[in-house]
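Demo today. Your pick:
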Amino acid sequence: MSRLFSIVASSLMLFSSSVYADFEPFQPLPPSPPIPSDNPQTAAKIELGKQLFFDKRLSATYTISCNGCHNVMSAGDDGKAVSRGALGIEGKRSSPTLYNVAYQTVYFWDGRAATLEEAIKEHLISPTEMGMKDKQAVVERIWNTADYPRRFAETYGKGVALSYDSITKALAAYIRTLRTPDSDFDRYLQGDKDAISKQAKRGFKTFVDVGCASCHFWVNLSGPVPGLAFQMGEGFYELFPNYPGTKDEARYQLADDIGRYYITKDETDRRMWRVPVLRNVALTAPYFHNGQVKRLEEAIRVMGTTQLGKDLTPAQQQDIAAFLHTVSGRFPTQRFPELPRD
């Protein structure tokens, strides 16, 4: 257990005391996610990134766009346990929502990408995702589309080449606009005590009391945001399942994939995972890294047995679910962009 995790857990145990006011482990969504200095936001870059995000020409077979697995017209995912990429190959892990993803410190379930740009670079050439042969194939595909070279020149200015970096930076700029502020829970944290129901308030207290909040806290209910205890590229991980050998582990194959160990080959990383975002969780079923659990209440129950070592009562499950419904925010209006000509 990390030192930060210990501090958080100890502080949250004092939820009702004055320490809570000082610690403030739950905070409304900030007006902007962290923006890297080497990829500043501009209106032109965001619009270019949006075109790329919806353009099937970024896939090897011209059959899917980024929006295919991360549907921003809905909740930012595809509602499937696992997805099939452009080459028809099924992935091993569930596609997470892209809403509020820019507040993370690392990317992918196993935290193998330190930045959003780095994650996008892997997506485009992954055989289970966009399936492009290599980076050069991506650049050539965009270069050979009549309007894109002009759009890139207008966006980045003279002297900046159309490159793999400039493509991924544009996509990242658009994805950083995918925020869902103004949830009922945000308004509650801002002082509107009637913003959530009595049941949701019970669920929030239960969420803290039983230990859920030891991992699910701060802005995204997924641990520290960049610059707050952790820097970009430093992941906040937790063992899952934390209590191995349960019937739920076997039923949902939760330990078949051993997570971050595949990246580091370090035994201490066996079954370690980046703590997932809980904002909009009521809208992003199915659940867990393998997408095996379909209902929110069941996911809560399973987290109780496998992560907390507790059998949560049906009332506790329902109360926590009521609370988690309050962390769904206001989705920005999304319209399909006009794509460049061939």
Remarks:
- The CA atoms of residues 73 and 333 lie 8 Å apart.
